[in-house]
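User: ok so my PI wants both of these folded by tonight, can you help

Assistant: No problem, let's get them done. Here's the first:
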Amino acid sequence: MSQPDLDSIKDLLPNEHLLNFHAGTPTLPEWLGDSLKIILGAGDFNQHGISNVEKFNMFDVFFCMPFDVAGSLRENVDYLLKAYDKKKVICFLDIQKPEQVESFCTLFKNRFTLVDGYGGHTPHLPMECIQKILKVGGTAVNLYEGGPGFFHTQLSSILNKKVNEITKSDAEIMLGKLILPPSMNNTSKQTIYRSFNKRLDKYIREKLQTNPSITMDWSIVPQELEGKEKFPLLAKALAVLYLYDPLPTGLKGTFQSSVRIWDTTRTYHELVVTKVQEGGKKKKRKTRKTRKSKK
């Protein structure tokens, strides 16, 4: 199991800018606001000569194990302490340890307007935690991990099932990349894509009827789009309808196009979740008791 690498900054701990969940539940500094943006999987690395904290300076909270590569952690911490004194924090915790995740979610309840992650292998918080840490009106993106490649025979087997027989394990497969035989010619490949696309479209429309917590923005799948380009949109859309069936109370999701605030040059097609109300059980409405008539 991976261990946090805090050796390079141990002379700085404890520090109100460094929230170390490995050592227990920290205390939030009083100066930290309650309309925050967080980026998961950042705060300890250096990409192309730029530290995470500098690259993602539009975020208030960074979330990482952390790891340290040739002094990268110390570089991030030093930059944050110098440039963002009493403005930003880095959270150190292990996404694989439920007690740390629970502590984090409780500590940051109703504080985030945006939850994002960097890269395809970013840590992903449980959806129940997303519901807890978002403010009403806040959004979350980059919510799930892409899967490994899968063969067309696997997808055929899944789509031969009835809509209510598809499982979350099936859905996880559809998050991957379809692998077709290298020997297959382009015409045959396009025929397979069109066949799958037609079936996926049908399944999505049926599943939307039973999972009202998620909607589909069909404008991202224009009629002229077909074949190989259309397939991953439909496969991922169907996958999230099963993975999050339903979303926790208070959350609404849409499979749509989106851009990152840290990279507006690229468009993603993904599930975007918004907190529309506080979660929890709805209170039962009180009804007047009818008076018993006198005999």
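One down. Here's the second:
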Amino acid sequence: MRAHRYSLIAITAGIICFIPSLFSCNQVGTAEAPATSPTFFQSDAKGTIATDISSEYLTSEQAEITPKIPLEPDDTLVALANVNFDLEKNEEQVLAMKRRGRADSIIRIAVVAYDSVRQSFEVVFDSDTKSVNPRAFSLSFGDIVGDHNLEIICRGIDGNGNQTLDVFHRTRSPSGFGLYYNRIFAIALQGSIEITEVERSATYQTGYTNGVAFPIITQTLDSESENILDLVQKTYYWRFSEEQYVEGKVEKIPGEDVEQQQLRDLYRKNALAFEEFLNGSWFFTEEESPASRVILNFNVEDNVFTYFTGELQEAYRWLSTYKVLSNRVEINGNNELVPFIKKHFYIQVESLYTMRIRGSDPWHGLYQKISSQIEHNANEKRSVEIPQLSGYFYSDAGNELHFDGNNFRLVEGSLARAGGYAIYFAGTQVLELRILNGAGLVEESRRYRIDYAEEKRDDRIYRTLFLIPGIVGIYGFEATEDTFIRFEQIETVDDAS
């Protein structure tokens, strides 16, 4: 049975992620009734109102929506989601709240449902979580126990910097009717916590049987070992009779001996050192065709990471990096084009030239640093550093190339194209243009060797780009044409200033 990493519908404090593929919340035997997609909101600076951002892009109205219950004066709203847990007419609402002005206060959740007798929305369940940090908190939903009901899943970081996970499962209410929840798992540790999705049967997918429950796996440093890479792995399994996740298999995972002093030093350093290590371009080693090479670029200076494939480009604002194990960090980002799309994954550094992404399908796998491989095998030198490109450049043929942040607009004759771009090292400096269609998918990729020249003459600065078309393979950039394209930008400066 092939194991996958678990994808969730997630909402975070100020950074919201909406993933269209939902786990079914149908009851057994009711496959014809699809689950209702949750509605997500983003709280404002005061934490008292929220904006509906359920669609892939914000609507022009962006209507302000208040929670269905009034907040206490001392509470601030961390996260808010509407979701139909029971397939009834009225949606339920899940709120995450925190005491205003108290950094050490824990984040609490509340489930709000419509009371047909009182004809008002009431809190049917509330609970503390182990999380404290609102920036790192995420609220998500998924059927992890396999009974076709959505669990409430809260991830975060506590006051000691530990990773936290709280899972709440729908259960029988003490009153005998209505919604109610029970905490079935809670943990805080210095390490990684992963919900591992396993394949479920076709009869589960159609709603006729329950499915296997997903195990929860934690990894922490082995305190009894002198090797900083030795781990203790614990697997927690769902026990139906107790309605709890219980600790099952405990095993020690021996780490490999680290021979390079440079790598040993990195493992002892903080998250900032890992960011510097990641800075640059990495290619996915399991891709067979160099033409469709997956490239992941980290830019520490601009706090951006960008994921390139043959059909897709995703650019994310790099929000935070947390070190969870000696050789593993947690990366968090939000999409630059659609800011409420959240990206969360673990990176494990395996050598001076390789790293592995865990827990994020389809990004997971082994990556190798492009510049490291090429410098190691081909002993090629880097080109002159290219500054951040900005503004309009014009070619000898009259074409226009405009750079704005990580985006570009190319006008060739009467045809205008736009998309995202990146500059990375592949034996030489490479400019990659990803042209996007109206749906935001990559319809064409262009790669050029890029050389940059800058000269000041009198009161003008001349900036020139020399672009040679080509491809990027495992051995770096290869030119496909003997000619180059020249783009030039002229800036008039006032010497008196």
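The chain has three domains: 3-253, 261-378, 391-492. Confidence is low (pLDDT under 50) at residues 1-9, 11-64, 372-384. Good luck tonight!
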